[in-house]
Amino acid sequence: MRNPTVVKFLTKLTAVWNQLWLCVVRIEVQNVDCKCTKSDISKAFRPFGPIGTLFYNNQRAYAHIKYTVPDAARLAIQRMNLVPLCGCCLSVSTYLLSIFTMPHSGDG
What we know:
Layout: H1 4-23, E1 26-30, H2 38-45, E2 51-57, E3 62-67, H3 70-80, E4 84-85, E5 88-89, E6 91-94, H4 96-100
Antiparallel strand pairs: 1-3, 1-6, 2-3, 4-5
C-alpha cells in the first residue's frame, strides 16, 4: 500500500526538479583535450542552440557554455555526454552554480 505522505512528497519533489530543469542554461564540459580549440568546442555544441557565452580553459581541460535557451542546454547534456571530441570522451553536465544562484521568486 502506498503511503500518501510519501506520494505527496515525491510529487512535490518531481515538480521542483522539473522547475530547476527550466532554469538550466549553463553546462560544464570536462575532459576536453588540450589540442581542442574554442572554435572546436563551439562547432560541437552550436547545433543544440544559440550559445550566449563560452569559456574555455585548455590548461584545466574544461569549458563552461551558457546557452540562451534552456532546451539547448538539456539537449547538449543528453547528446554530448561521453562523446569523443579531439580524441577524448567529454563529460557534460549542468553547471550547478547557475542553478543555485538563480533569483528566488519569493513565493517560498
